[in-house]
Write a structure and sequence with these properties.
The chain is built from 19 helices and six strands. The protein is elongated, with a radius of gyration of 30 Å. Strand 3, helix 8 and strand 4 form a beta-alpha-beta unit. By secondary structure, it is mainly alpha-helical.
Length: 463
């Protein structure tokens, strides 16, 4: 027996099917998009003389009543309605009578769900962009105060060369900039209306898809209806964009976890965004950045799940595609709260400049500066300078000094022509500022990069 969409099930077997088949418990998230889409649809139907002005006005009135009921917590979501579309249409019939049945003219649930879901994803794109812009402002505020604050720049998690803390923050600004650009590109590419495609082949009614798209804020209508009702690329894109963004968040959080440990001591998390041990009262655990690391795996799973659902589907719509929404809803929710809480963690985090500076005195961070000095001033090839510098580092290790602490007399043991200016050259602050090439870590270059980001952010969509 075919289960009619508007029917109510009474047998135990049918009730089990209702529970398995229904999406109302999660796609109710799309109520606003469904109402907006239906309002635009009946406006188009009336404009095209497919329904009367009176029917249009009654339907719009009823839809506004339903919106108010949902937002006031008065609406009853019944699993027997199967999905949000049938739920709203059923309630609309209760409010306005038979004219509610006209709302489904010249459309299918296939293009209706494609519309609602696409509108949700486009809206979420913009919401995440705004939150990322806010996060970038927090990073800029921190960086502006620390263009001269030294810390070790690392590769392989080993001390490499001295940089300033603002420069390190700018690296994450670059990552989040790319994330914003991905969300913006996705919004532009996917701002295309699916409504009017009906089940898969278009509609025999004299519809006006362009008018409906304009009412809903789309840039254009889709080209091919068969593709449109089965297209979920826009959902995959937001999942990929969120996964990439959360990977950047996770990398940042890993550094916060390291920096807040006793071994580093570069930062201290506020009590508000950390917890104590259940048995060790002296401990302050970085639970928030750890949770953010963990949630990255969660959103990655949502992306892989939808890719797997879609990978073998024939055209056009298949019921498998009902599995497209929960992962997207979850990833969007996770992304939003993650960006918000990371911003709060950063705003309340204490930066320990003294410990950062002490760390630049470990690991011979200015060794490359000695090799460069020998190349520029003592007629060494860089390879020979590199070899000699290695010998100097070995000597410094033997006498338990950092290379920046060696005296001119000690350096003359290796190369007598070295001049007194080398003492300043080997200091971490000098080493940092010597890297003044475009994109480098010098304070001057860092300030230039900060100005770039201030200009870039001022052009972003923030309203």
């Amino acid at each position: 027996m075919i289960k009619v969409a508007s029917g109510k099930s009474t047998t135990p077997k049918a009730k089990l099917l209702d529970e398995f088949n229904a999406s109302i418990l999660f796609d109710k998230e799309l109520y606003m998009q469904d109402i907006e889409g239906s309002i635009a649809h009946v406006k188009m139907l009336e404009k095209q003389k497919i329904i009367s002005l009176e029917a249009k006005e009654k339907i719009i009135y009823g839809l506004h009543v339903i919106q108010s009921e949902i937002e006031n917590g008065e609406y009853i979501f019944d699993i027997a309605d199967e999905d949000i579309h049938m739920s709203i249409e059923r309630r609309l019939s209760d409010i306005i009578g038979d004219d509610a049945k006209r709302v489904h003219t010249a459309r299918s649930r296939n293009d209706q769900v494609a519309l609602d879901f696409r509108m949700y994803v486009l809206k979420s794109n913009n919401e995440i962009i705004k939150l990322l812009v806010d996060l970038q402002r927090v990073l800029i505020a921190i960086a502006s105060k620390h263009t001269k604050t030294l810390l070790p720049g690392m590769t392989h998690l080993q001390h490499a060369q001295p940089i300033n803390f603002a420069y390190h923050m700018l690296a994450y600004l670059c990552m989040f900039k790319r994330d914003i650009e991905r969300f913006e590109d996705s919004h532009k590419r996917n701002n295309i209306s699916p409504i009017g495609c009906a089940a898969l082949a278009g509609s025999p009614y004299p519809t006006n898809r362009e008018y409906e798209a304009e009412l809903l804020g789309f840039d254009s209508v889709s080209v091919n209806c068969l593709d449109t009702v089965s297209d979920r690329d826009f959902a995959l894109e937001i999942l990929f964009n969120i996964s990439t963004m959360m990977m950047h968040v996770s990398r940042f959080c890993e550094e916060i976890v390291l920096w807040s440990s006793s071994e580093f001591g570069f930062v201290e998390l506020s009590d508000e965004y950390s917890t104590s041990s259940s048995i060790m009262p002296q401990k302050k655990n970085p639970d928030v950045p750890e949770l953010l690391r963990g949630k990255t795996g969660r959103v990655n799973g949502n992306l892989i799940a939808l890719l797997t659902v879609l990978k073998g589907l024939p055209l056009a719509y298949n019921k498998d595609m009902q599995e497209d929404k929960e992962g997207v809803f979850d990833s969007v929710k996770t992304a939003k709260i993650s960006i918000k809480i990371l911003a709060e963690v950063l705003k309340s985090m204490k930066i320990n400049k003294e410990n950062m500076l002490k760390a630049t005195k470990k690991g011979h961070l200015s060794a490359t500066d000695l090799a460069d000095y020998l190349t520029l001033n003592c007629e060494y090839t860089f390879r020979d300078a590199y070899r000699l510098t290695g010998e100097v580092v070995s000597y410094a290790e033997e006498i338990n000094k950092d290379i920046s602490e060696l005296t001119l007399k000690e350096l003359h043991k290796f190369e007598p022509s070295i001049k007194e200016s080398i003492i300043n050259t080997l200091q971490p602050q000098f080493s940092m500022n010597a890297r003044n090439s475009q994109g480098g870590t010098s304070t001057c270059s860092t300030l230039t990069q900060l100005k770039y980001f201030e200009r870039w952010i001022s052009k972003r969509l923030v309203d």
